[in-house]
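Before relying on records like the one below, remember that each one covers exactly one chain. Contacts with other chains, cofactors or solvent are not represented anywhere in the record.
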Amino acid sequence: MLKERIQQLAAEVFDSTIQNRRHLHAHPELSYKEHETVAFVAAKLDELGISYQKMANTGLVALIKGEKPSDEVVALRADMDALPIEEANEVPYKSTKPGVMHACGHDAHTASLLGTAAILQQMKSEFGGTVKLIFQPAEEVLPGGASLMIKEGVLDNPKPKAVFGQHVMPLIEAGKVGFRSGKYMASTDELYVTVKGKGGHGAQPQQNIDPVIITAHMLVALQQIVSRVADPKLPSVLSFGKVIANGATNVIPNEVKLEGTFRTLDEKWRDEAHTKMKKMAEGIAESMGGSCEFEIRKGYPFLVNEEKLTEQAKVYAREYLGNDNVIDLDIWMAAEDFAYYSQVADACFYRLGTRNEARGITSSVHTPTFDIDEQAFAISTGLMAYLALKRLGN
């Protein structure tokens, strides 16, 4: 049977998948600089006899064509970039590059997809259809590698009927996976604000236009965009994590700089909120004698898992893993550039559990102590192969 065959091959590639992941983890590269990483992936595909082509400078796409007759196509995606974080883990595969770390699991995604490729390549004579493997750069930095890959035609020639993405999740126990149909992850926009006034001595505020006070009013007022303007049924987040006044105890500065993020799950409301935030901030500054430059760098769209595809994938996952190992997920207000695929194709982005409390593997992504329970590879490679072949009609 298909499941047993894939599980057998998944067991065979388990050790090599771990080795690949550890190599990638020890040699992380930042977004748009994944030259060694993509060379490593290309070498592994060469060993497997899988053809590929380079895209988006540091990405590539590969094809595995089944030998049985079928024109159906599915795509599987893995991202490859790391983060500017100094690793705190003391492990044999610790990052060898100061200040750079695979703190979001993209090393695991890449290694897992290589394992899936090895499984599918060995099964070419047993299935019909084509599997497109997308090894994508720069998920972490705008405009996002997915947008670049799509612009260069990664979803064309041939066009897939479905795109699957798998992402580690330290909140879920290793051995389990999670799915959510419909809207799943938020859009993300970066906000860069400069509030300008007139600086001077803190003991003579009447001679100044205090941008610190203007900013304080602005920060409180802008939260009304979420609490009073947005539809309460529509998740929205507005957070400012960086405020620089750069004055002193007795010095009022000329300007204050803010940096923040806005996230939501509706493109129409997203655009409306941009207009309202900018108008409110500029109006507050003007009313208090100052001025405001409000820059919005529009980021990734919201991620939507096509409902029929995702419900179907959940059924396949239960077939492969058992009912108890497939869980339902809630909305996640983080962002992912896989959202670009979901906006132009039927897509399913699901979560791979990597948590192991007994071993202390519990840290969140984007932290210096993030790691994964590598036992997750016992299911990750085979599940993705199973989803692909079932979706192809095998």
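The mean pLDDT is 97.
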